[in-house]
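Quick start: load a record and inspect it. Here is ABC transporter ATP-binding protein:
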Amino acid sequence: MSLQSHKEQPPLLEVNGLRKYYSVKGSLNIFAGAKEQVKAIDDVSLKLYEGETFGLVGESGCGKSTLGKSILRLTEPTEGKAMYKNKDLFQLNSRELVKVRKDLQMVFQDPYSSLNPRKRIGNILEEPLAIHSIGNKKERTDKVLEVLNKVGMGIDHYYRYPHELSGGQMQRIGLARALVVNPKIIISDEPVSALDVSIQSQIINLLRHLQQDLKLTYLFIAHDISVVRFISDKIGVMYLGKIVEEASTDSLFETPYHPYTKALLSAVPNPKPRFKKERIILKGEIPSPLNPPSGCVFHTRCPYVMDICKKEIPVNREITKNHYVACHLFNDV
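Running the structure step on this input writes:
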């Protein structure tokens, strides 16, 4: 879907000002019972449009997985809104949330830990249908066999246990479990990071095929920007709980603006470079979300740091059409 068509339709899911803080006892004041906060997600906003893939990329620990789980309320958000069909997901009660979760499903990074090892695959896949009171026993079995076929599995897998499957097969089962209730949105949390490269390409191609066939919308979370590039229409770059740059895939790779994005892209191997690409090496470690830097969270590692970066949080600005950056280097743009 082209970004130009976004004005013709409202977003399918719109997240505004999402924050997720975890309270922890302060190490220095543990006996006094004082608490500090880990800012896993700090004021993140994004929009998902029907039929598109929004890729979310960043280093491990930046809050990508927490963002996906917070949207679905698998972990309760601290603050913010998530509008879906004119309803704020964060304000729904438990009964209302169960109903809407049929439309919003998740594929987890480690499928084995999310599958019950004591149940056969068929029973695991029929369970969501039973929870949502969809069909009778025969209809549920037929639906599961249909979905298994769609993800490239056979009827024999219906009777197997999770430990009898390979990593790629288990990821297909995790995808099948999400698909069985006919969702509108699937949040994929690092779905290929634990797989061999050849299996990764099979799963990515399967996701793209299913998206076209079933008109699915994806939030695709990964740390490998090359994988994100292959599947995404739009990419958000995340650092220490914040999205620092957002643009269409082509725009982001052709003209990255944020210093962190430039550093990520400089690390991508290019077997046939037109010109020698300068490798940007970031110094230092990612700051702790328990004690994030003041001002811009990236200023402790940024090669272009200015005094203002240490004091003020940068505003998210539209630098070119549909290309947003939160960086003080573009204050005058």
